[in-house]
Amino acid sequence: MTTQEHVGTERAELLAEADKRTLIHPHSVIGAPAEPLVLDRGEGAVVWDVNGKSYIDGTCGLWQCPVGHGRDELAAAAAEQMGRLEFYSSFGDYSNEPAIRLAERLLELAPPNMRRVFLTNGGSEGNETAIKLARLAHHHAGNPERFVILAREGGYHGMGGGSLAATGIDRLREGYGPLMPGIEFLAKPHSVRGADVTDRLVGELEERIAEIGPERIAAFIGEPVLGVGGMVPPPEDYWPRVQDVLRRHGILLVVDEVVTAFGRIGHWFGSARYGIEPDLIVTAKGLTSGYIPMGAVLAGERVLDLADGAAFLHGFTYNGHPVGSAVALANIGVLEREGLLERAETLGARLLAALKPLERLDRVLEVRGVGMMLGVELTGPDAATAAAGVQAGARADGVIVRASGTTIVLSPPLVIDEGRLDTLARVLTEHVTAA
Ligand code: PLP
């Protein structure tokens, strides 16, 4: 008998047992499977497990779901496109209508100097693409030695060869042998409780450029707001000053907006929030609200001028996927029609205000956030264990939050109602207070 033939508690137990016997989960310990939370369905800001227990989704899964769970409109867009043309490669001269329409739509919404779109399957692949394109652009323009990528401690760009190499989180990098060479790290752009750190960060950037030699540096990569690194908004003057320095040295700016794009911080692109003029923008997650894996890399004028005429022999089978593109278009339609970008600002301010009093606790280093990207950072030698304990305790009480190192990260769907948002804040407050 298979698990499908059982119902109720028996089904739940069999599924859990089969999960542990068969799957390797991302971010799990090989040979020591965790007790899985087997989810069954979702609606809005709530998901249910196979036992029927409900959870307020305080993280949107992995931040991917601004329009919330269970939207028939997105399912219908996928089904309609699958019935018409499920897939055809977009290598070379092949194309399809949803991909073309999505590219047009993205360029309408993007910062003004963006000119072209490369559609991907997710964030890591987007960053691989952006890093390769930045390097290729300089190579093609006659500067093949210009390949160094500047990245930052605390930055997260994914799990591929280049995207992991540019990720500044040590615990994720260990054990895989040499990663992609030519990546240099700068300090984490974190101003704890508003301390003035921009002078130091910009000074370090100038020094490192001088040491390495600007003629060797292809690009700088960074998230507008550090996500996995702890939901860290930068000081307001950080990005304008960083991009001035980069511009002066002809260094391209790759902005990783895998989390910040599509409303999470109140704008279509987080770059608009911080006055950033990127050369390349990497998106994923919120593009389709995760209903289907998809990402997009947007390329600006400068990089396209440098790369003009270069053969870009890069691509993955499912790039330009018509079903993903159709879902993305439907998702963008929902974000727009329901005013969810504005909602991110209002709800984010409400949640931040509700959690800010936690800063009075010795256990709490900082409560911070911008739009619907918030973090509660714990302190103390056991802070990471305590954060994991908060995650487990809140889940037992029907609220999903996520411990990322020492920070509890929050990014609810933008459709969450005020009542559930307040419950999320109350449950989190209880568990952090007890941590
Ligand atoms: N970049 C950022 C900022 C991310 O947060 C993530 C994933 O969390 C990625 C890239 C990698 O995206 P994916 O997991 O879709 O490959």
From TrEMBL:
**Which CDD domains does the annotation name?**
OAT_like (cd00610)
Q: Which Pfam families match?
A: Aminotran_3 (PF00202)
Q: Which family does it belong to?
A: Belongs to the class-III pyridoxal-phosphate-dependent aminotransferase family.
The record's InterPro entries line, in alphabetical order, gives: Aminotrans_3, Aminotrans_3_PPA_site, PyrdxlP-dep_Trfase, PyrdxlP-dep_Trfase_major, PyrdxlP-dep_Trfase_small
Which Gene Ontology BP annotations are present?
A: biotin biosynthetic process
**From what superkingdom does this record's organism come?**
Bacteria
Q: What is the lineage of its organism?
A: Bacteria, Bacillati, Actinomycetota, Actinomycetes, Streptosporangiales
SUPFAM superfamilies under this entry? Answer: PLP-dependent transferases
A molecular function annotated in GO for this UniProt entry is: adenosylmethionine-8-amino-7-oxononanoate transaminase activity
What's this protein's name? Aspartate aminotransferase family protein
Going by the UniProt record, its keywords in alphabetical order are: Aminotransferase, Pyridoxal phosphate, Transferase
Q: Which organism is it from?
A: Actinomadura syzygii
